[in-house]
UniProtKB/TrEMBL annotation:
<dbReference type="Pfam" id="PF13489">
    <property type="entry name" value="Methyltransf_23"/>
</dbReference>
<keyword id="KW-0489">Methyltransferase</keyword>
<dbReference type="InterPro" id="IPR038546">
    <property type="entry name" value="Hen1_N_sf"/>
</dbReference>
<dbReference type="GO" id="GO:0003723">
    <property type="term" value="F:RNA binding"/>
</dbReference>
<dbReference type="GO" id="GO:0001510">
    <property type="term" value="P:RNA methylation"/>
</dbReference>
<keyword id="KW-0460">Magnesium</keyword>
<dbReference type="InterPro" id="IPR024740">
    <property type="entry name" value="Hen1_N"/>
</dbReference>
<keyword id="KW-0479">Metal-binding</keyword>
<keyword id="KW-0694">RNA-binding</keyword>
<dbReference type="Pfam" id="PF12623">
    <property type="entry name" value="Hen1_L"/>
</dbReference>
<dbReference type="InterPro" id="IPR024026">
    <property type="entry name" value="3'-RNA_MeTfrase_Hen1_bac"/>
</dbReference>
<keyword id="KW-0943">RNA-mediated gene silencing</keyword>
<keyword id="KW-0808">Transferase</keyword>
<dbReference type="GO" id="GO:0046872">
    <property type="term" value="F:metal ion binding"/>
</dbReference>
<dbReference type="GO" id="GO:0090486">
    <property type="term" value="F:small RNA 2'-O-methyltransferase activity"/>
</dbReference>
<comment type="similarity">
    <text>Belongs to the methyltransferase superfamily. HEN1 family.</text>
</comment>
<keyword id="KW-0949">S-adenosyl-L-methionine</keyword>
Length: 461
């Protein structure tokens, strides 16, 4: 079983320092279930690839030396990525997975372009499951499915794939994601699963699992469908998500206080509403709807016959439902509105067929590597006739005396673009997906730094 990790970060040979494995050496390690080998088929300043080759002994697994839960001499364990590979990653790359490197300490926390390839991965759930798991945490996915037998094509396809994931990540993040998720795709483990596995999942899932759209499926499979452990873990993950939500709400209040002096949020929503009315749209998506402020305005306008609000946060959707008093409004109004739980970084057929989509102050909350997935979801798959996107103008931040220099307006912002950066991104997206785009300032416009909010209006050509 082969795992390769490649980077073109320069100098690419820094990968050897991060992994604590020298590129000029072929190293072998003994495990109770076989041998592992680490080597580098290429190691230049421009490109470096590290390989972990796992040679599993199928006979040794069955003969009783170990407590492996493998019942037959003939099995797929020597040939596929499974929990054996996860154990090898954790033992051979433990320092790298823990985010430690004394020779390149600054690189440990620096996201770099990484490509990981698993030659054969059993995926119980198919290619769509691969995308649903990897794309929300910032990877693009390529998968090639293997037939059951090339000599007998009538037997059909197997559950085995060659999988390549790529993204701009720290090496620690990549190794942690692989460690957790490889057994999830296989839906099996070769060792006993108890409370220590629950604690491992909570530890390795810190910062990403509690907000993952598929956290329940990941948790269930990682813990081998043991209902007691699964329930305990979900409770703790939900508690962590509640803490994250509370922190986000606090920073959101701080952001709103920053903008209160001239009611920027009201001007932003007004600009969005006016543009949607002018587009002639009758069916509207509010993507990243949050607590429902735009939804409230849309409901009050009879032009909009069908309105859908979607958000990745269940708590935000619950707050939107309360804000809009959906249990009290007249039935004719309620029929026009639907709230959906979902993510903007993997395809959702429920978003197809709408006249317009509004994405208001959302993209800056996405990790930059996830933007390409967001672009495809909106412009390639959903394909509304009109798309409105608003995002902060970083240049305007100097106008707020209470905002420290170099700090974003919201602690959850992953980036804030200046006007040129936003226009370069928007023009590229429009050209690639068959849209035209125009730009509108929102809020009081300064001669030098522009307006506080910038809006792109995309129209399908």
């Amino acid at each position: 079983m082969l795992l390769t990790i490649t980077t073109e970060h320069k100098p690419a040979t820094d990968l050897g320092f991060l992994l604590h494995k020298h590129p000029d050496r072929f190293q072998s390690f003994d495990f109770s279930y076989g041998k592992a080998h680490v080597f580098y088929p290429e190691a230049t300043e421009e490109r470096c690839t590290a390989c972990l080759l796992l040679d599993v002994d199928p006979v040794g697994m069955v003969r009783g030396k170990q407590s492996f839960q493998v019942a037959q001499y003939v099995n797929d364990r020597p040939y596929v990525a499974s929990s054996f590979m996860s154990v090898a990653i954790s033992q051979l790359f433990n320092t790298a997975m823990g985010g430690r490197c004394k020779d390149r300490p600054q690189l440990v926390t620096t996201p770099i372009p990484l490509v990981a390839r698993l030659e054969v991965l059993p995926v119980r759930g198919g290619e769509n499951f691969l995308q649903r798991i990897f794309e929300p945490i910032g990877y693009s996915v390529e998968a090639v499915r293997h037939p059951l037998d090339e000599h007998f094509p009538e037997w059909g396809e197997s559950d085995y794939y060659s999988v390549t994931i790529s993204g701009t990540k720290t090496l620690s993040e990549l190794l942690t994601h692989l460690y957790v998720l490889i057994p999830v795709f296989d839906n099996d483990k070769h060792y006993f699963v108890g409370e220590d596995e629950m604690q491992k999942l909570l530890s390795k899932g810190e910062g990403w699992l509690s907000s993952h759209p598929e956290k329940e499926q990941i948790t269930r499979r990682y813990l081998k469908n043991l209902s007691s452990l699964y329930s305990q873990t979900l409770v703790q993950l939900d508690e962590r998500q509640d803490i994250e939500t509370a922190e986000n709400q606090l920073t959101k209040v701080q952001e709103e206080l920053l903008e209160t002096s001239f009611s920027l949020n009201d001007q932003r929503l007004g600009a969005v509403m006016a543009t949607l009315r002018a587009s002639g749209a009758r069916t509207i998506l509010d993507l990243g709807c949050g607590e429902g402020k735009l939804l409230r305005d849309l409901l009050q306008d009879q032009q909009f016959e069908q309105i859908v609000g979607m958000d990745v946060s269940i708590r935000s959707l619950e707050m939107a439902q309360k804000r809009l008093k959906l249990d009290q409004i007249p039935e004719r109004l309620g029929k026009r509105l639907n709230l959906l739980h979902g993510s903007l970084i993997y395809r959702d057929k429920r978003l197809e067929g709408f006249d317009a989509a509004a994405v208001v102050e959302v993209i800056e909350h996405l990790d930059p590597p996830r933007l390409s997935a967001f672009e495809r979801v909106i412009f390639e798959f959903a394909k509304p006739r009109t798309v409105l996107i608003t995002t902060p103008n970083r240049e305007y931040n100097v106008m707020w005396k209470t905002l420290p220099a170099g700090q974003f307006r919201h602690s959850d912002h992953r980036f804030e673009w200046n006007r040129q950066e936003f226009q370069d991104w928007a023009n590229g997206v429009a050209e690639q997906h068959g849209y035209s785009v125009r730009f509108l300032p929102v809020g009081p416009e300064d001669e030098k730094v522009g307006a506080p909010t910038q809006m792109g209006v995309f129209e399908r050509v």
